[in-house]
């Protein structure tokens, strides 16, 4: 039977959530970088006995709280999402177990069996955001797809979204009528491409 991706994609308002990154090395910095690139207003705390200078610099720039201590389960208090990135497997697995007991979403970097979620490739153009998942199988493929979508999604897509939002406010009728009107109005977005493909 063909494998399929059963993950359910969601877009989290991370400024309303408390995120903890356990670890202070390269992987921690990478996770923090991608998180802040996508959500500069994310509320993040990091805990580690040591932090790289570049990590400290990035954390200071975005108001990330840094705790220079070894991991302890008390640091999970009031946290909603945890990312474990240490180079000590036993610590990462302990973080996972502690989070599961407290119903906290957890991701152990590069260890799919110990993940409630994956951090996928992300493309952002104004209000439009596309997230890409390979079911934890191939981050490199997600990266290539992200580069592809960055190229094919037009730069002015945000203008279109804003204009459609204004137009939506002026449409009369019930929900179904509004949806139908907007569907008709935006059909050309895909239709042109289909016509072009038919001529190939």
UniProtKB/TrEMBL annotation:
<dbReference type="InterPro" id="IPR006367">
    <property type="entry name" value="Sirohaem_synthase_N"/>
</dbReference>
<comment type="pathway">
    <text>Porphyrin-containing compound metabolism; siroheme biosynthesis; sirohydrochlorin from precorrin-2: step 1/1.</text>
</comment>
<feature type="domain" description="Siroheme synthase central">
    <location>
        <begin position="126"/>
        <end position="150"/>
    </location>
</feature>
<keyword id="KW-0560">Oxidoreductase</keyword>
<keyword id="KW-0627">Porphyrin biosynthesis</keyword>
<dbReference type="Pfam" id="PF13241">
    <property type="entry name" value="NAD_binding_7"/>
</dbReference>
<protein>
    <recommendedName>
        <fullName>precorrin-2 dehydrogenase</fullName>
        <ecNumber>1.3.1.76</ecNumber>
    </recommendedName>
</protein>
<dbReference type="Pfam" id="PF14824">
    <property type="entry name" value="Sirohm_synth_M"/>
</dbReference>
<dbReference type="InterPro" id="IPR028161">
    <property type="entry name" value="Met8-like"/>
</dbReference>
<dbReference type="InterPro" id="IPR036291">
    <property type="entry name" value="NAD(P)-bd_dom_sf"/>
</dbReference>
<keyword id="KW-0520">NAD</keyword>
<dbReference type="InterPro" id="IPR028281">
    <property type="entry name" value="Sirohaem_synthase_central"/>
</dbReference>
